[in-house]
Amino acid sequence: MKRNHELYDKLSETTSKENVLVNEEIKNHTYTKLGGKADYYVTPESYEEVQSIVKLANSEGVPFTLLGNGSNLIVKDGGIRGIVLNLQKLNEIKTDENVIVAQSGARIIDVSREALKERLTGLEFACGIPGSVGGALYMNAGAYGGEVKDVLTSAVVVTREGELITLAADELDLAYRKSNIPEKGYIVLEAEFSLKNGNYEEIKAIMDDLTYRRESKQPLEYPSCGSVFKRPPGYFAGKLIQDSNLQGKQIGGAQVSLKHAGFIVNIDHASATEYIDLIRFVQKTVKEKFGVSLEREVRIIGEDKV
Q1: Which ranges constitute the DSSP H helices of 2-90?
Q2: What integer pLDDT is reported at residue 306 of this predicted model?
Q3: Whole-model pTM above 0.70?
Q4: Domains of the chain, with CATH numbers?
Q5: pLDDT in tens, 252-271
Q6: What are the DSSP calls for 129-179, one per residue?
Q7: Considering only CA atoms, which of 239, 255, 229 is closest in space to residue 289?
Q8: How many CB atoms sit inside 10 A of residue 259's CB?
Q9: Catalytic residues
Q10: How many Cβ atoms from other residues are within 10 Å of residue 89's Cβ?
């Protein structure tokens, strides 16, 4: 998409020029360090600005894409056309008794730390999840036996039409690693979590244990999208990949991690194409060897490079 000066001016009026970047490299904003350019990369600072940008995109017929903090996402090498919204500047976290309200751009890790500080239990599982609050709702993030649906009570979202609405948690159809947020086209702005009073030392001990288990088993020293595949019923994805002798398998700069077979890491300036090709190779090999179809947990968006 060529730069549309009129659209740029309208976006700048909606938020500010500092919040509108043109032809921005998305790989600078993803955990995998993958992804081409965004035509317009916009970081609004209020709910009203988000609503206005959605309405502007609709009126101008310009596609828009929501980008969380890019921890569970692969953006293709051709980038993303139209407007890419990043809500990183909406990152407030507030506590009132046993309720925490967090804006979507806050990291779910930081929400779990706030819960610890306030001696609230229920979010310990999230202490090692790198995603944003919005991303955590989008995929009902979970780890170590806990998930968002266990503690979420409501969410504030913007609809495809730019309307601001509040939804109860059960209206989001949260299930294993999914919600109705993508199909409804919701943009999450805020989440409310209901927790229980607990003991600081006990909560901290659980979080320290989970952090140790994560750091000792996961290849955090390399860029990655986290766990690539959902857990297939009756199996563990990492074990199937390991038993297929795929650890260390490499395509270009992308490698099946030697530390944890469920991770694919960017060890040498991989392209998104190489990363995706390796995911498909793993799926094909596991299917041939064990008859199990591995379903991606990571999202793939954007366009192929021409």
Answers
A1: 5-14, 47-60
A2: 80
A3: yes
A4: 5-86 (3.30.43.10), 93-202 (3.30.465.10), 219-301 (3.90.78.10)
A5: 999 999 999 999 999 999 99
A6: --SBHHHHHHTT-EETTEEGGGTEEEEEEE-TTS-EEEEEGGGG--BTTB-
A7: 239
A8: 14
A9: 177, 227, 297
A10: 15
